[in-house]
Design brief:
It is built from 28 helices and 23 strands. By secondary structure, the protein is α/β, with parallel strands linked by helices. The strands form 5 sheets. Strands 10-14-15-13-12-11 form a 6-stranded mixed β-sheet. Helix 8 packs antiparallel against helix 9 (210-223) and helix 11 (322-385) crosses helix 12 (391-400).
């Protein structure tokens, strides 16, 4: 087994130990509120988890992990056999949780330091041994762990499989290291042979082959010799290798291992024991460790413990750079867009084929009419020869279309009557050619139809393959939401014990898939939100009882997908948020005047909760009062282009709603037309599609309402909800509410229900959700964009944003539903000067800073900026581009620093020049910060308060 294989196994061991440790922690927490049967099942599950970690650690040579897991396993045996689980004490759970924590630390230390015993490991081993000693003192000593009896070795077939396929790789590595050893690299050879020893001894311990382990122990004794030389290493090493080959052959033949003991040098007194008795006497919690279970079924790989689902090490794996994986995901999105384009072309082709077939039918009918006309004229000629007046018409026809000279119509057959011999004219030939041409075109159309059908089948197959590819690629980057919340029950339990509250945590949607790159950005916000709900939301038990609530509060965390984004809701049933308290705090802290504070809406007041340093708590405690919790939530979410908003009912509870964009989302959408534009509405947010008559619209005040499912819901036009405008035709926008039959979408979200009237329904379509790229920020009500098959870009609605907007005024009054923001007071809101020759960049920066409640002044170049400053502009920060006409950024920076009145203004350079030469020049001239385009909005907003603080100092 080479280093790569070993690293693979160690990675698998680390990942699975995390799962087993998390399982033990979750079971311990669940036992406190579970019944007797559930507790008994949880103890068995924890015993198996500890046993699996012990076996896997022994196999890979992590003896400290094996010892610690075995000690914890014995604790679970005492818990199972000698305690009354129906009267489980909370202190017992707490002590075992400490043991799980110690085992977790030992596992991490062992992997990082190759099982070299460190002082921290010794301390944690002693902690677990102390826990076991306390259990023995309290409940009595444990008996032999009741694991199933096993034979002295694994099943013969299992042994043959292992020693035939896996062991030769270890022998080859041993022989390679011995043959390539040199005096200069003797230390490296000893390190490599030490790894071989761990694998051989672990294998012997797992398979209960002490004789095989003795041979491996001889190798360890050899490499631990203080006077080891190259000659001795190679001579005695080859002897050990030969004995290993003999032992392998005896096992393959089904015979017992029979070799003389190898003791080339005295074993040092501190040499480690074999894995079948790994417990040091000073830490040993029991006389003899429990032998690991062995799976009876043959396995072609190195056998882990029977309950440890280690992946097959023979499956090849590679490590892929995250950026390349992101590119692959983006290419899948492009593939879906082009597939949609192909489907559109296929539909157009089918339509053209149908049109051609209709024209062929018309052409065939025309040819038939020509034949019928000729036959009619021929019959008229026959009647004329018999004295009928139709002769003139036929003569006229034959004058225009002369008779064709051939055998049938030659004068030699003149004695034949017209009914006895056909006569052909050019008129007849023209009609025949038309018919033949129609038949040829029909044949080609049939071929086109066949090709179109094949094209359709190929498109369907491409659709299936694309869907499979998308699913497989997404699985490479997504993990279960449980990875982000499994640590929260433990944290909440500790807070409940510390602060004497009763709070239950309900996790909904644990299997919801999220991008793995979002885990780090989610952990801190979720911890802060849970702490916030625990401290600010959930009341003390006596207060809850007095208000008619159960003594035990509840915090619910739910994760789900909707409309191309992940929505995470953290809700509690506590006291809720008092908006008037926030209003008073805003005035007290000087963030707004009394008059302005009275004008703030509920949404604007809630937004103050996320300001740095803002807190509604009077005092400072370990949980709250410092004003950093919710600020961290918003800052972390901005780094991944996420958002958070608050919904609260006083006395009922509070919900924090987090929205995160999906890395790649392909979803079904309903395409609608409104205000001359196509709009995509995520289909999973559409509760029902209605076609109502104008008489079904009710008016409450000036607000249209719709009676739907035994309740009235608001009815608004879609164009009144959108806060953007697109230049369209000169014709006025049609009002859907004035139509005789009104298409209505009933939209559902976490905010409630809303009926939206649109101009026209187009149809359902699969779309690729593309979030707006930085530095563009997400507009209200717009989730992102998608590209249709014909190349047009269409906006996708964010239904939660639309439904959550404040009441929209009457559509009859034609008043926009946009909320007017009250500008902050000039004395409190910092003013920032943005200097850039690009109008687009100035506008983007202005929108970003305005949303962050800064006042913004724009200047198109250095001269314009300097004039504004000389005219008395008071700014707290200047953000300056370098390359500008008339006066560039360096010249402006030099002018600012050389003028005493402006010298203290902080200046941040924002430029596309990322070279060290430009950066150094800016810093030498006195720039406070240097940003490069494209800039990160989160980093810029995070740096601005620090820069402004410099100007105050």
């Amino acid at each position: 087994m080479n280093d790569d294989d070993l690293n693979e196994l160690i990675d698998a061991f680390t990942a699975e130990c995390e799962e087993f440790l998390q399982s033990m922690e979750a079971n311990l927490l669940a036992m406190e509120s579970a019944g007797l049967k559930e507790r008994q099942a949880a103890v068995k599950e924890m015993f198996r988890a500890a046993h699996s970690i012990k076996g896997a650690g022994s196999m890979l040579g992590f003896q400290n992990v094996s010892v610690a897991a075995h000690t914890l396993e014995d604790c679970f045996v005492i818990l199972r056999d000698r305690t009354d689980l129906s009267a489980l004490e909370p202190t017992t759970v707490s002590v075992l949780l400490q043991g799980v924590d110690a085992l977790k630390k030992i596992t991490i230390e062992s992997v990082q330091h190759s099982d070299v015993t460190t002082p921290d490991q010794t301390e944690n081993l002693e902690a677990i041994a102390q826990i076991f000693a306390e259990f023995q003192a309290k409940y009595g000593k444990s008996e032999q762990s009741p694991v199933p009896a096993v034979s002295q070795s694994a099943a013969p077939e299992t042994l043959k499989q292992i020693f035939e396929h896996q062991v030769p790789a270890l022998f080859n590595r041993l022989e390679t290291e011995l043959s390539q050893a040199s005096e200069a690299d003797l230390a490296k050879s000893v390190t490599a042979l030490n790894q071989v020893y761990y694998q051989l001894s672990g294998l012997a311990g797992m398979l209960l082959l002490p004789e095989f382990g003795e041979i491996a122990a001889a190798l360890r004794a050899l490499i631990d010799s203080p006077d080891l030389t190259l000659q001795r290493l190679q001579s005695e090493g080859w002897a050990i290798a030969q004995n290993l080959h003999i032992a392998r052959q005896q096992i393959l033949e089904g015979r017992a291992i029979d070799l003389p003991k190898i003791s080339p040098s005295p074993t040092p007194p501190d040499s480690p024991r074999l894995p079948d008795s790994p417990t040091p006497p000073e830490i040993s919690p029991s006389p003899s460790p429990t032998p690991p279970e062995i799976s009876p079924s043959p396995s072609p790989t190195v056998p882990p413990s029977s309950t440890l689902p280690v992946p097959n090490p023979q499956r090849p794996t590679i490590r892929v750079d995250l950026e390349r994986l992101t590119e692959l995901v983006n290419l899948v999105g492009e593939l879906v867009i082009n597939r949609t384009n192909l489907e559109l072309q296929e539909s157009e082709l089918r339509g053209e084929v149908k049109r051609i077939r209709r024209n062929i039918v018309d052409l065939s009918q025309f040819g038939g009419q020509l034949r019928e006309e000729y036959d009619r004229l021929s019959f008229a000629e026959w009647r004329g020869e018999n004295g009928n007046s139709g002769l003139g018409k036929l003569a006229a026809a034959e004058t225009e279309f002369p008779t064709i000279a051939n055998g049938k119509s030659s004068p030699a057959h003149a004695h034949f009557d017209i009914l006895e011999m056909d006569r052909y004219t050019e008129f007849h030939s023209t009609a025949a050619e038309v018919i033949e041409t129609a038949q040829a075109i029909s044949h080609s159309a049939t071929k086109l139809d066949t090709l179109a059908m094949k094209f359709e089948r190929s498109t369907d197959q491409l659709r299936r393959i694309t869907e499979q590819l998308r699913s497989r690629v997404m699985q490479l980057r997504v993990v279960s939401f449980s990875r982000a919340v499994d640590h929260l029950p433990r944290a909440l339990r500790e807070m409940c014990l510390t602060y004497d509250k009763e709070v239950n945590l309900l996790l909904v949607g644990r299997d919801t898939k999220i991008d793995e790159s979002l885990l780090d950005a989610l952990r801190d916000p979720l911890i802060h939100l849970v702490r916030n709900a625990f401290d600010h939301g959930i009341e003390m038990p006596e207060v809850r009882k007095a208000s008619g609530k159960p003594a035990s509060g509840q915090i619910e965390i739910e994760a789900r997908h909707q409309g191309g984004q992940t929505i995470i809701t953290v809700a509690d049933d506590g006291r809720g948020i008092d908006p008037e308290m926030i209003r008073r705090k805003v005035v007290t802290k000087g963030l707004a005047t009394e008059e302005q504070a009275q004008e703030f809406s509920i949404t604007e007041l809630y937004d103050f909760l996320f300001w740095p340093g803002f807190s509604t708590t009077e005092g400072v405690s370990d949980l709250s009062g410092r004003g950093v919790g919710l600020d961290v939530v918003r800052t972390n979410l901005r780094t991944v282009r996420g958002s958070v908003k608050v919904d609260s009912r006083l006395g009922k509870g509070t919900s924090f709603i987090i929205k995160l964009p999906l890395l790649l989302s392909i979803t079904d959408a309903l395409m609608v037309k409104t205000d001359h534009n196509k709009i995509a509405v995520p289909l999973d947010a559409v509760e029902e599609i209605l076609h109502i008559k104008a008489s079904e619209v009710h008016i409450a005040g000036n607000q249209p309402m719709l009676w739907w499912r035994e309740e009235f819901i608001r009815l608004v036009r879609m164009q009144d909800l959108l806060e953007y405008s697109v230049v369209g035709p000169d014709a006025p926008s049609p009002d859907p509410l004035t139509q005789d039959e009104i298409p209505v979408l009933v939209l559902a979200s976490t905010e409630g229900m809303l009926a939206v009237a649109v101009e026209r329904l187009i149809g359902q379509q699969e779309i690729v959700v593309k979030p707006l790229p930085p530095p563009l920020s997400k507009p209200r009500g717009v989730l992102g964009t998608t590209i249709l098959g014909d190349g047009r870009v269409v906006n996708i609605l964010d239904v939660d944003d639309l439904v959550g907007q404040p009441g929209v005024n009457s559509s009859i009054a034609a008043v926009s539903g946009k909320v007017q923001e009250i500008p902050p007071s000039s004395s409190q809101s910092p003013q920032i000067l943005v200097v850039d020759d690009s109008y687009t960049i100035r506008q983007l920066l202005s929108m970003t800073l305005t949303r962050a409640r800064y006042r913004v002044v724009q200047a198109k170049d250095g001269v314009d900026a300097l004039e504004k400053l000389q005219n008395g502009l008071d700014c707290s920060l200047a953000i300056v581009d370098i390359e500008m006409p008339r006066m560039d950024g360096f010249e402006l920076l030099r002018a600012i620093r050389s003028t005493e009145r402006f010298a203290k203004i902080p200046v941040a350079m924002l430029t596309s020049r990322s070279g060290e030469k430009h950066r150094q020049m800016a810093m030498e001239l006195g720039a406070n910060q240097y940003f490069t385009k494209p800039y990160s909005e989160a980093q810029l907003l995070q740096a601005i308060p620090k820069l402004i603080h410099q100007s105050i100092i």
